[in-house]
Model the fold of this input.
Amino acid sequence: MEELGEDHDDGTVARVAAIDIAKASGMVCLRVPHDTIEGRRVQKVWTVASTTNTILELGDRLLCQGVERVVMEATGSYWRPFFYLLEARGLNCWLVNARDVKNVPGRPKTDKLDAVWLAKLAERGMVRASFVPPKPVRHLRDYTRTRTVFVQERTRHKHRVDKALQDAQIKLSDVVSNLFGMSGRAMLDAMIAGERNPRTLTELAKGKKPALVEALTGQFEDHHARLLRVLLSTIDHLTAQIDELDQLIAWTLEEITTPSSSIGTEDEAAAVSARILVEKLDLVPGIGPATAQIILAEIGADMSRFPTPEHLVSWAKLCPRTIQSGAKNTAGPAGKGNPWLKGALGEAANAAARTDTFLGARYRRIVKRRGHAKALVAVARSMLVIAWHLINDPDAFYQELGADWHRRHLDPARKTRDLVRQLQALGHQVALSPASA
Done:
């Protein structure tokens, strides 16, 4: 039997408020101790509109009641006005995952009952706060996420351009390495302008390829030219927007410098500019500047929220979930996690897997027995652990261990035992003798 010492700080809160948030309103439940009767709780439930003035009035009312914590569910993006405005009023706001505060089955589900249930869980300390970064990091996150969406949309439009060319029997993408490079774009613009002669179009290419004439011979009509004009203008517009977002991201990184206004730490000596953190992360194989900016935007620049790398890996859902039942321990699914962070780490892990580095060697060791997907997750986990150390320690810099690190640190006795077992499994008798000096 495990004995637990008395925990005086059990997480209970005397004065709490919970908000069940909808699009246009929120159901507020206030639970405070009774003024005269000890042990009695007073509960009030009312509806507030999700307008700025109404939320600010709600904040003043909760402050007058001495509320110690305001808890709300993460419902789409509708929680943001309540959280930001009440936090600006000086209230301690917690955002909780709706999965962790589901109502008890068998009870009617209404907004009022949901708010009461959330308030009861909060006052008993049975909820966990989700990670909400400080304001400058939230701005950086908005820019990086918008840039990711624009890059994906631009890629889709590029595929539509190739689809239109295939419809016109133009096989330019089979010959040109980059359809939207200087040569490819010059030929596309010429076709839109009315040029149809394959030999004339071939002269616009920087490198002359005999296959270009055959690839440019097709049934390109005015209809395809009008369609390509629209698609290329959209691609150019998205490229300009992405460039503007890159500038906004660079400016925001310069703002995340001081402890008071950015990363939330009081140790001025440990404060590091976010731009320096991006440069440090850029040294990791597979991680480029854009990926480093996404990592910093999603996890922030203050690692006090994640005491250890394991906490960060668990929050990002890059490790299996432990399931214990009796004497049986199994590994469950990792979970969804942050899709923006996991997507960026997945692309970085895929790039690092093709390098002759420690991370590349780690991928090749795992992929043989676990498969491609799980090997990428393992490499992404290693990269996130590296990012935690680089962000947490101002003096830390990435040092490449080398692709032969595992071979240099393997246990000779264990390797010998494994090789002997493999030979015995093939039907051989093995007798070992020490090599002569």
About this structure: DSSP finds 18 helices and seven strands in the chain. The first strand starts at residue 16 and ends at 21. Strands lie at 16-21, 25-33, 41-49, 69-73, 93-96, 321-325, 328-332. Residues 246 and 435 are 61 Å apart (CA to CA).
